[in-house]
Design goal:
Shape of chain B: globular
Order of helices and strands of chain B: HHHHHEHEEHHHHEHHH
CATH topology of chain B: ABC transporter involved in vitamin B12 uptake, BtuC
Radius of gyration of chain B: 22 Å
Radius of gyration of chain A: 18 Å
Number of domains of chain A: 1
Distance between the termini of chain A: 40 Å
Strand order of the largest sheet of chain A: 6-9-10-3-11-12
Strand order of the largest sheet of chain B: 1-4
Helix content of chain B: over 70%
Structural class of chain A: alpha/beta
Number of strands of chain B: 4
Helix content of chain A: 25-40%
Oligomer: heterodimer
Largest interface: A-B, 37 and 30 residues
Strand content of chain B: under 5%
CATH architecture of chain A: 3-Layer(aba) Sandwich
Strand content of chain A: 25-35%
Shape of chain A: globular
């Protein structure tokens, strides 16, 4: 963790992405370091989602470079991104309602034996996964009513917490959060924000997409503003420059 | 998912009474959900007890063995159907698939006396139809497996009729006849086949990674793809296993009747889907224990047998089974509603 203090853990250099005639991302460069929260701001259609999809392997940049720990890397699929230590929490959470939190954590990456069998044929080490999940939830101070209940029985905030905690199990470099508080009430938003700050304090680099300026000034070390696929500004957000930030977003 | 109407909205101004009320409500909701969970087994037990009282013949060794051997085919095929329904799919072809497999078995018997070869022929035939279902569904990018399995229902039936010239083909190796029709100490051998399949299914569904993936795919297919679960392979495998189960069903039925016939398995798709739903699995995918299919199959067997014992008209039996299906699906809907309520209460507790 100490080694990466100065070096950005993730850097995008001159990223460009086209969808047919539409220039979705135009020469975007961003950097994010361990232990910081980078807020990604912009109006709808500004390119935020495209940018994080390019970072998390859903899309690929047409031109430009993604560096991980300063080393140029090729992320061609979501699996590549996850192997590289980049976890994404999408807006729809991608949770399995019919599974418990522990089962959700490890879905697709189950701990199973014996190792000589192909993954699908192995036998689940359920106890081990339950204990590991419990530890992670305790570490992140996420309280759930019952660990063996399915996610279907949980409130919006609890589900969000489970999704974020799942990302933290596997992320060892970057966690990307796409509007994690959009659907939550005040108190549940509070809990998710606390969770994000804990992720940051554990040495992850966090990229946060949000429309809530309060959350930006509270959590973000830096804010990058996108408009119509271009990066129009980058600043350290505080109470004083909130208006400036909003002006950048809407282009006024 | 959650109803927006606050039907049970707590009175805001009633002070300290609110948390207690909320606890109570959560308690009752949980009890309701638990009851729904064990409902099918409970109903089956009640059914057996009340029938034992109503009819002196019902709980005799012979009648119970009778029910079990009649249920065996439905039970085995229903377990395969269950895997498909777990992934939000449906397999309408199981009945014709079974008929075709039995005919293929009968033809194989003309070339070889080996029971092993005949059984293999039936299993392969079943799995092959299942593979066609799965492959066309996945690689044909169909929106739902309904159409392809409806098509293979017709194709397999036609093939079976063509191969058998429209008639039953008598003759099965002795071992298969024993397996399908005989019993030891009053316990039909087919019951052991059912139990064997159940154990294998349980191991796969409950303890293996592949089983977890089947549930995950049923829970949320889009998420499964994002989490790196091989969605296509999982889907195809469930149809192949369902077809294989139809093949096993063909072995049992051909053994019991000492023949292969293109007319076997009529309405078996209805029976197996009914067994899965009555047993308490969710039609919406992702929920249900393999035991549900078993309980449902036995329940159908018991209901049929009881109606026979009570001299109820055979046509009426179809009506009864239909009504039971509706009740089972409604209880699934009720479960979804109750879960929504639990979620709301959880959120309210936090605020």
């Amino acid at each position: 963790m100490s080694a990466g203090q100065a070096l950005p853990v993730l850097g995008v250099r001159n990223g460009t992405k086209r969808f047919g005639p539409v220039l979705a991302l135009d020469d975007i460069s961003i950097e994010v370091r361990r232990g910081e929260v980078l807020a990604l701001l912009g109006d709808n259609g500004a390119g935020k989602s495209t940018l994080i999809k390019c970072i998390s392997g859903v899309h690929q940049f047409d031109s430009g470079q993604v560096d991980i720990d300063g080393v140029p890397s090729h992320i061609r699929s979501p699996m590549d991104a996850r192997v590289a230590g980049i976890e994404t929490v999408y807006q729809d959470l991608a949770l399995f309602d019919n599974l418990t939190p522990a089962q959700n954590f490890y879905a697709g990456r189950e701990i199973a034996r014996p190792a000589w069998l192909p993954l699908g044929m192995r036998f689940l080490s359920s106890g081990q996964m339950d204990i590991a999940a419990k530890d992670v939830l305790a570490r992140l101070k996420v309280t759930l009513p019952k660990l063996d209940a399915t996610v279907a029985l949980m409130s919006g905030g609890q589900r969000q917490a489970v999704a974020v905690a799942r990302a933290s199990v596997f992320a060892h470099k970057v966690v990307i959060l796409d509007e994690p508080t959009a659907a939550l009430g005040l108190r549940e938003s509070r809990q998710v924000l606390d969770l994000i700050s804990r992720l940051r304090d554990e040495g992850n680099a966090v990229i946060l997409i949000t429309h809530n300026m309060e959350h930006v000034t509270e959590l973000a070390s830096r804010a990058v503003v996108l408009r119509q696929g271009r990066k129009v500004g980058e600043l350290v957000p505080d109470k004083a420059n909130q208006k400036e930030l909003v002006a950048m977003i809407v282009g006024a | 998912m959650v109803s927006t109407k606050p039907i049970y909205a707590p009175p805001l101004a009633s002070g300290s009474k609110v948390p207690n009320e909320r606890e109570g409500r959560a308690y009752w909701l949980t009890i309701g959900l638990r009851l729904l969970g064990v409902g099918p087994i409970l109903i089956l037990l009640l059914l057996v007890i009340s029938l034992s009282i109503a009819s002196p013949v019902f709980f005799t060794t012979r009648n119970v063995a009778n029910i079990l051997s009649q249920t065996a085919v439905i039970a085995v095929v229903a377990m395969g159907q269950h895997l498909v329904i777990l992934t939000r799919g449906i397999d309408l072809s199981v009945g014709s698939n079974l008929a075709l497999a039995s005919v293929v078995g009968a033809i194989a018997f003309r070339f070889s006396d080996s029971a092993v070869l005949v059984i293999l022929a039936m299993l392969l035939s079943g799995a092959a139809v299942g593979a066609v279902n799965g492959l066309v569904y996945v690689f044909g990018r169909l929106p739902h497996p309904f159409i392809i399995t409806l098509a293979t229902l017709s194709i397999a039936k036609g093939l079976a009729l063509e191969l058998a010239q429209g008639r039953a083909m008598p003759g099965m190796p002795g071992f298969i006849k024993t397996l399908g029709g005989d019993s030891i100490l009053g316990v039909p051998y087919s019951l052991f086949v059912v139990l064997g399949v159940t154990v294998l299914m349980l191991i796969m569904a409950r303890t293996m990674v592949w089983g977890r993936w089947i549930y995950a795919v049923g829970g949320k297919p889009e998420a499964a793809v994002r989490m790196g679960i091989p969605l296509r392979a999982v889907l195809i495998s469930t149809y192949v296993i369902s077809g294989l189960c139809a093949g096993i069903g063909a072995v049992l039925l051909a053994g019991r009747t000492d023949a292969g016939s293109p007319l076997f398995g009529n309405l078996l798709e209805l029976d197996t889907i009914a067994a899965v739903i009555i047993g308490g699995a969710s039609f919406l995918g992702g929920r249900g224990h393999i035991g549900h299919a078993l309980v449902g199959a036995v329940m159908i067997g018991v209901i049929r047998n009881a109606l026979n014992l009570l001299n109820v008209d055979i046509f009426f039996q179809l009506i009864v089974i239909g009504v039971v299906i509706v009740l089972a699906v409604e209880s699934d809907v009720l479960r979804g509603y109750l879960e929504g309520r639990v979620r709301t209460v959880q959120a309210a507790r936090l605020q």
